[in-house]
Write a sequence for this structure.
């Protein structure tokens, strides 16, 4: 009779045991979980429009006034005086030759000074071209992928999740079995 009681107690304990005691292969005991793979049905990129800035350099030439130095060369006046003196010396005779030389020197110096002044600006400035540059930003709109909506099927049921990357043809899922009380 002891054997019969032992067999009955064993059968009763098997019937009333918690479901975690009968967890199948790959399932941990006591309400744990395991990992499996589900088929990916479709993947949709999640995009957002962003404004992208591209710097570039913009350059142009500009006339810039530059103050002339106050220095004025005496070379045109001296050269004019020499030439005028030579010309005056060849024109006169006797004491008139001396007067013609002096007059030619003074007149030539004056003409030389006037010619030298013509090559300077009257206000003491001249202009030079300088290249100026600045950084400017060009903007454009661009679509950027922020993530993916992934639709997958596991054991005949369809699910959806968001992922930072495209998972490919299958996705790893965590399967959890808990007793229903």
């Amino acid at each position: 009779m002891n054997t019969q009681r032992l067999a009955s107690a064993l059968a009763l304990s098997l019937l009333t045991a918690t479901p975690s005691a009968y967890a199948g292969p790959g399932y941990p005991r006591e309400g744990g979980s395991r990992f499996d793979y589900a088929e990916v049905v479709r993947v949709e990129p999640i995009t957002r429009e962003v404004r992208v800035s591209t710097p570039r350099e913009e350059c142009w030439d500009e006339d810039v006034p530059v103050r002339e130095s106050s220095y004025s060369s005496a070379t045109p006046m001296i050269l004019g005086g020499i030439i005028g003196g030579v010309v005056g010396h060849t024109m006169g005779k006797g004491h008139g030759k001396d007067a013609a030389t002096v007059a030619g020197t003074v007149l030539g110096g004056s003409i030389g000074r006037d010619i030298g002044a013509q090559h300077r600006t009257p206000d003491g400035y001249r202009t030079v071209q300088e290249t100026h540059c600045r950084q400017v930003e060009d903007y454009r709109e661009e679509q950027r992928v922020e993530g993916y909506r992934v639709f997958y099927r596991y054991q005949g049921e369809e699910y959806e999740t968001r992922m930072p990357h495209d998972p490919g043809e299958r996705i790893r899922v965590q399967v959890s079995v808990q007793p229903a009380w």
